[in-house]
Amino acid sequence: MRYVVPAGSVMALVLPAFSSRWFKKAAVLLQQAFHQRLDLSCFTVSQAEWVANRFGLSIHLNTLDTLAPEWQSRFDPPLSLLPYPDYAEHIAVRTVEAETTPVVFVVTGSEKALIGGAGALLRHFRFYADRMEFSRLQVDCRPLTPLRGVFFANRADSHSYFNFTDAQWEALLTDHALWGNNLAGCIPVHFPDWPGTAPWPEPGEFASAESRIMWEAHWRTQQAFCKHAAALGLSPAAWMPLHTAFPAMIPPELGDPRAGILDLAQTEARSLAAQLHEALLLNLPQVERIWLSPVLDPVSTSPTASPSPNIVLDMALRLRESFEQHGRPLEIWLGTSGYGEEPLDALFTRLAHLTSSAIRALICDPEDPSFVQIRREMPLPIQLLTAMPLSSAVKRIQSLVSFDPEGEYVFSGDVPVILPRAWAERFFSSAPLTYGALGISSGSHDEFVRFLWAALSWLPQPELDEIMEQYGHWYFGAEAAPCIRDALAALEAAWSPPQPQNREKAEEALARLDQAESRVPPRMRGLAEFRMQLLRIRALLDLALYDKSLADAQLVDRLRDLASCHASEISHGRICQDLLKWVNHFPDESLAARFHELGELRRALFRSHNLHVQAVDRIWNPSRLRRALAARLQAALRSPAPGEPQAFWEELRRGLPSGGEEPGNDRSSAGSQA
């Protein structure tokens, strides 16, 4: 049976007579969601006041404990919860008939899960310009893992979140909770980004008045992040590198002040780090979980960056003991990325002899070489968590003709791509074996990946096509949703090897986005606009990359033809002169302008000049290759040494791809680290 709720209808959100803040929060979020999507009059009433035939549609928010007796018999079979407290987030959504009124139940096993239950309900509603539709619902879902969520990075000039306002964090975290997550992590400070800044202990020191103003604004948004997360039932967590500090706080004898890195082999440096971490956490009172990383980069696997596991463990135990004295117990997670076999053995030996559960979890990227050993040998009482970067899944996307090929690749952290199947494979390679599969998000461009990641975290999992269409329903409306699904699928297909060669798929994605944009209901255009720009820029970038591949292939072919010339021609320099003339007139200026325009579009979209914006500029530096070739050719022609042109030519031959290799082949690696 299909229900239709016309615009202008009346809806009741029915809560238990004595509602907790989680019931009220879920009701508020539902009201906001309906208001953003359709003209509905929404009322929140207690169950004692509700009259079934008064409203056109009613929704009950309940846990099993608060469900009214007259409705409990409606469930066949009865709801049952798994016997683990972490799985009390079991969610059920049902439609029943109450006289002539459709009643939708959102029933959960725990109060905090009501927000995720509201999101589960929204996934099944279809919004049009003049109505809302839904079918008879019988949905039961439970989490795949107890912990689900993302760590949001905010490094200056490299992540889109750095300039987020209080309102932006609230909107992002609201979606995060409605998608069914229960943890939100932040990377509160990248200490080396703040030279001259030492805000703790008060009153603090700053390099300038401007530095102080920037810091205070930044820190307010970090506190807002934790406040909004806690208010939404998301457990606030923080990632903290153990061996970094504000450069202004580091004496030269204790580390590298310029880089903000402490030498943790020294007792004084460890003491300074402990003081800093305690001060940081005292200013973030909502934080419940700490991910202590022994490396500077949360996804780095460089063993040279990792202090001894004994040092890391001692610092973790000291931090936990200090906060227990403050009456604030913290759950400690230890990062393990970058450790080899012997350091891990030493860590496991010490963890096995701890008399308390001071360390709750070990956390590792499943693509770290040590992941298999960690999963096999870690002490049983400790949980295993995984953390994966969500920005991209492509290792190398484009090779340039160069004398230094390794230096001319664009790497995965530079260009966000949409590869749902690759991400699903990454998720399922580790998530079922862990206490939680967490993501690391470095900017708003990866929103769809976060949506996908959250959907995969619940059982039963939707098909990938269904997840893509649900994303369209959530932000673009029912009529636009199939077009959004097809656009996402085309963007994924455009990156099928060899890539980025598939112009047809990139053009198809743009056509589908044009169709979707014309079908977005007026009330949902605010939700759709930013996300539509993200997807459109992605497709435009694919087209530009395709044309760039063709241009690079033409250059390679021309150089290969010239490289086959007779040595006598090379020795007289004529061929170098011909090549120099051709290189200086290589037709790439229009393509360069397109990449410049894309950079400006991303700069305007993110309102910052961060590295994700700069990456578009780096992909196409219009004269880099030409300038390098021209400079070497001119040097060869000017050289008095008779063999110099031929020496240059031999070097060029060695740098060229073989005749059978196409640009872009064998450059992709789905599942690599960002």
General description of the model:
With 674 residues, the chain is α/β, with parallel strands linked by helices. The protein contains 21 helices and 20 strands. The strands form 4 sheets. Strands 10-11-12-15-16-17-18-19 form an 8-stranded parallel β-barrel, surrounded by 5 helices. Helix 13 packs antiparallel against helix 14, helix 15 packs antiparallel against helix 18 and helix 17 runs antiparallel to helix 20. The two termini are 46 Å apart. The C terminus is likely disordered.
SSE layout and pairings?
Blueprint lengths: L1 E5 L3 E6 L5 H17 L3 E6 L10 E7 L5 H4 L18 E8 L2 E8 L4 H11 L2 E2 L3 E5 L2 E6 L5 E4 L13 H13 L4 E4 L22 H23 L3 E7 L13 E2 L4 E2 L4 H16 L6 E5 L15 H17 L5 E5 L5 H12 L6 E6 L6 H7 L5 E7 L30 H9 L7 E6 L5 H10 L1 E2 L4 H13 L4 H13 L9 H17 L5 H39 L3 H5 L2 H11 L4 H18 L4 H9 L4 H15 L5 H12 L19
Parallel strand pairs: 2-3, 2-4, 4-6, 10-11, 10-19, 11-12, 12-15, 15-16, 16-17, 17-18, 18-19
Antiparallel strand pairs: 1-8, 5-6, 5-9, 7-8, 9-20, 13-14
Helix pairs in contact: 1-3, 4-5, 6-7, 10-11, 11-12, 12-13, 13-14, 14-15, 15-18, 17-20, 18-19, 20-21
